[in-house]
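tool=predict chain=A
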Amino acid sequence: MSIEKKRNSVKNKQELSIKRDILLWNEIKKGNSDALNEMFYKYYDDLFFYGEKLTSNNAHVADTIQNVFIKIWETRHKNYNVIYVKTYVFKIFRNELLKKKHKLTLYALILDSYSYSVKNFAISTEDLIIEEEICIEKKALISNLLKKITPRQREIIYLKFYLNFSNAEISNTLSINKQSVSNLLNRILTSFRNEIKKQ
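tool=predict ok
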């Protein structure tokens, strides 16, 4: 399959997924618990893997996912219309996960719009969408490049290339300016390209 066909296929799947989410969201607002279950299972794995990047407490990640969907269900009559349901779910999940609850010690929150200090937002090479035939040397190079960027930059890379978020979705999820996302991505990728050229 050509690169263009792959891109079109991915785009079509994303569009279908967005339409399905809107349908499920509207059904949830009507009180359809099956729609809630479908959305829960649709995003559980992605939410869990994302949560693992933000905290090492897997039990807390799992509890937070459940709490998010309970909250969606309990407030279904108040829920407003959203266009990007996935982004909305990820945003409230992230906010809930990073709150300090009881005696649970979580990692530091965002200090300001540009300095980010969630500790250990680690991305393994396998987290990224990389061609299966990529050689060991290239994997090692990418792994080293990922270690050189900030935790916030790694989170943006994760959302962009693993979860296939658009710049607007990343902006909404992380509560930062869309142009900042674009600028950060450009800087990261330019830096990566320059390092790869040196190699």
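The longest helix spans residues 3-29. The domain at 3-97 is CATH 1.10.1740.10 (Rna Polymerase Sigma Factor; Chain: A).
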